[in-house]
Amino acid sequence: MEGTATNESAGTLKSHSGRVHELKAFDDTKAGVKGLVDAEVAKIPSLFHHPPDKFGKASNLEHVIPVIDLTDVNKDPNTRQNVVSMIREASETWGFFQVVNHGIPVSVLSDMKDGVKRFYEQDIEVKKKVYTRELKPFVYNSNFDLYSSPALNWRDSFACYLAPNAPKPEQLPEVCRVILLEYGEHVIKLGIALFELLSEALGLHPDHLKNKGCAEGLMTLGHYYPACPEPELTMGTTQHSDNDFLTVLLQDHIGGLQVLYQDKWIDIPPAPGALVVNIGDLLQASWSLSSSVCV
């Protein structure tokens, strides 16, 4: 029995060592998933293989994430009260809702999506210069949890910290720096407005969450999901929750976003000009505490 246990341990260590070697080899290319697609791989590396998901898909005829219109929310008290009620119900039921007429011009949304695409479709040698796993104002890599995740996502990402300390323009890639900064300014304003509405939904003063510092920071993420030759074997983004106060998500026309509700996956199809709002872990914890206090 001792010999068998030792052999199994040695095999496990060897397997782990081989996996780490594969991960490092992939990381060292600095080409990400886009590099695999550009190389025209027919079979995706086993590092990206995911086990089958245990949850089924629900009918969107029965489950629809609400789309909330913010028109006149700051002008008409009745409209504001209706919006607050819808946000309260959506936050408690789904943890998600979409907003339209939110104050960010459609042209800015379109330019932001184009800016993300421009960045990822640059020449690989240009992108390699900013590929890093170090903490910097702009971080681009593939799979931030590359060395700890049980299976990799078919996705490349960049992260940009825009607040409270905005980066200098020269610290951002030239192909998207202008729109990143412009989009960030708009999202900060929207974030403050949403925190006011969420505070009211909790029965608190409109400035409550803002005064707690919830709206001080902003990190913008830009994800790129290139076409996959074996999509049935992998995932673009695995099941997760966001460890922040609030996520404002801009989807492109392809969509793919889903919410797990009562052990069923619910689609959130893209809506023209809409932004998806996701209650993050920190706000959910605050919501539970505040709701208990209110009751």
Protein described:
Its cofactor is Fe cation. It holds the Pfam family DIOX_N. Keywords: Iron, Metal-binding, Oxidoreductase. Belongs to the iron/ascorbate-dependent oxidoreductase family. The protein has 295 residues and is an alpha+beta fold. The chain is 39% helix and 16% strand. The chain is built from eight helices and ten strands. The protein has a four-stranded mixed sheet. Helix 3 (77-93) crosses helix 6 and helix 4 packs across helix 6.
Number of domains: 1
Order of helices and strands: HHEEHEHHEEHHEEEEEH
Question: Strands of the biggest beta sheet: in what spatial order?
Answer: 2-3-10-7
Say what the CATH topology is.
Answer: Jelly Rolls
The helix fraction, in percent, is 25-40%
* Percentage beta strand: 15-25%
Low-pLDDT residue intervals, each spanning 5 or more residues: 1-5
Mean pLDDT: 91
Query: Per the principal axes of the C-alpha atoms, what is the gross shape?
Result: globular
Major β-sheet profile: 4 strands, mixed
Number of helices: 8
Radius of gyration, whole Å: 22 Å
Q: Decide which structural class fits the backbone.
A: alpha+beta
CATH-derived architecture: Sandwich
Quick overview of this protein structure:
The protein is built from eight helices and ten strands.
What key attributes describe this structure?
295 residues, alpha+beta, Jelly Rolls, four-stranded mixed beta sheet, 8 helices, globular, disordered N terminus, iron
